[in-house]
Design goal:
Length: 158
């Protein structure tokens, strides 16, 4: 795409990384400052008219709202109003697959702070996207080129 790429894992605090490396799942209090920082990055890039890809485990609907709208999404369940602080236009690509496929991929990943044992907590926390969120669901059982093509098609068609 020629877009900037950000890996949300690079922005976790040392405390969050330590907690996860010890097999302790993050909670909302751990994640909200991280998501707000990611929102600020997305807002800055949007202000510069820079398209970006953010790889992020935005597991809950509220987390996706924070990415799009910032901290104000925490206090309000009201839709964002058009104007200066309008929500960012984000297409969420929900990568979906069987737990065993994801577990196998986690086992192969080396040097990452998230141990495979935390996969269950990720599934327990997951709130798959639903209308009216702007999202597509892509099967992880497809090949990487097929996954990328499906996401690209959704970006350019919508």
């Amino acid at each position: 795409l020629g877009w900037k790429f950000y890996d949300a894992d690079d922005y976790h605090s040392p405390e969050n990384k330590k907690k996860m490396s010890e097999g302790i799942p993050l909670n909302d209090e751990d994640r909200i400052p991280w998501l707000c920082e990611l929102h600020d990055i997305l807002r800055r890039e949007d202000s510069s008219r820079q398209d970006v890809v953010l790889a992020c485990s935005a597991l809950k609907k509220m987390y996706r709202r924070v990415l799009a709208s910032g901290a104000s999404a925490i206090e309000s369940n009201q839709p964002e109003q058009p104007g200066e602080n309008a929500a960012l236009k984000i297409l969420f690509a929900h990568l979906d697959g069987p737990r065993d496929v994801i577990a196998e991929r986690l086992e192969k990943r080396k040097g990452h702070f998230l141990p495979p044992e935390l996969l269950k907590s990720q599934f327990d926390t997951l709130e798959p996207p639903s209308a009216p969120e702007n999202f597509i669901t892509v099967s992880l059982e497809k090949s990487l080129p097929e996954i990328v093509l499906e996401i690209e098609n959704a970006i350019f068609q919508g």
